[in-house]
Amino acid sequence: MSIFNLDGWCKLSDEAQAISLKNIRFHLNDGDEKLLAQAEVHLQITGEKEVHIPIDQARLKLVLPHECGPIRDCRLRVYLDSNTKRGRFNLTGYRISDGSLIYTSAVTIEKVYPIHPR
Fold first, then answer.
1. What is the structure's pLDDT at 115?
2. C-alpha dist (Å) from residue 40 to 21, 76, 80, 87, 117
3. Which keywords does this chain's UniProt record carry (predicted)?
4. Which of 50, 69, 115, 117 could form a disulfide with 79 if both were Cys (CB 3.0 to 4.6 A apart)?
């Protein structure tokens, strides 16, 4: 199991500049980590831009900053770094109060699941 404390952002609209949110905390279990590694391989093979993995918010033990409020539609967004072609992911969701996009900084999948096929 991995525990993350990441900076996050709130984007009120596509045109708006993101507003910083500090310390979004969540847990990923071994199964989640394996899904991330599989998604990375899928992107490397297919050339798709990104994939979204729906994830149960309760299982994440998600803790959001007070100013954020609750979110819905939690997903792990997986994409390939444009330089290294290695997988990266971030947590995304939408604030219930106004539908704003909430997302975390990205993490390299290899740091979470170091033993996976290339």
1. 59
2. 27, 12, 7, 5, 9
3. Plasmid
4. 50
